[in-house]
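Per reviewer request, we include the raw input and output of the structure prediction for the construct analysed in the revised manuscript.
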Amino acid sequence: MKVKALSYGIVSTVEADSLAEIAGIRPGDEIISVNGCPVRDIIDFRYHASDTRLQILLRRDDAEFSAVIDKDYDDPLGLDFTSELFDGVKTCRNRCAFCFVDNLPRGMRRTLYIKDDDYRLSFLHGNFVTLSNVTEEDIQRILDQRLSPLYVSVHATMPELRARLLRPRGCPDILSTLRSLAEGHIQLHTQIVLCPSVNDGENLDQSIEDLAGLGYSLLSIGVVPVGLTKYNKAQDFGVYSREGASAVLEQVKRWQHKFRQQMGTRLVFASDELYLQAGRDVPGASVYEGYPQYENGIGIVRAFIDEVRYAAMRVLAASKPTRIGLVTGRSAEPFLRRLADALNAFHNISVEVYPIVNDFFGHTVTVAGLLTGQDIISQLKGRDVPDTILVPRVMLRDGSFLDDVKLSDVAVALGREIVSVEPSPKAVADAISALITTSH
């Protein structure tokens, strides 16, 4: 899928009575430069527009004109753009055998097919990038504009091993790149996607030790097992057994103990999937130290359990019995069933757990984040499910599941109210309280 490159930032909206509107800027205008500096993306625009006097060069109907704005440093201009990246998305040039995008079937959400590997999206949204396509100019820009923190897929710090995993078309030494960023005080979250008998064991130890050498610029290391769907063409990788996952957890635990003594932080965190594969309970919330890699599947199970427990306490005084359904992946089922049993014993709520089998991607895929709307519909339709069903928000992007089925489509198909759960205990409690108040 090709991504159209935009030469300039196209203004999408202008707030009424804003500085931008007063200066004569209109939707559809193309912003070429700010104070003589070209703008390649919204980061450039914000960086240069932070000054107190702006001369913005624009294009409208093939004619160029200037808008002059005087403001305080913190004054918003009151405009937005059609895209955050005016010059297009920097795409991935790697050919990882386990690449999720390369192995997607047709018919999914369109944006899933974009193989972005853009450091700007890492800064703006926390996307993990390999940094294998950055230039010296990119590195200098990151340092000059303080684009921090960045989220980096390392996988292995040893050049030959990393090249085997990424199969790149040219790949700089990742440790050298990360050291340059760390010396410039750019903070880094990193991840290592583990492939059994490839980059685990002693290789994992070496990668963790090398990354820790970056010092206090390194904020976290996420250890995540490789995910293989039934569409995956890779023959070189398998999935972790119960014993293999347990060994990785013990390895991570040893490093956590060492780092906590030396640095006051555990620094390295194992993904929920490793605990589930090992058949172990996920740790308490304090172990995750603020959930620095929540979106990477590290701490989601713990947060969800705590959210629902908190919500149940908020609705303890419900005047009538209330049924609530929890949709999850198969891997999290044991944890949520134990939680449901505890809540059902003490509160005026009936909590029922519905583990969904991943027919779409294959039964080896058991995490909630890769469930599709069509699987939820097919497995719950016609069943006596509660009137209110909670789904983790990690399943959704802009209200749609991976297969482009919308949350509202699931609600219509099941004839039930479907509520996506924010990663916040207060949000969950407020949502359930509101539903009970409405229903009673």
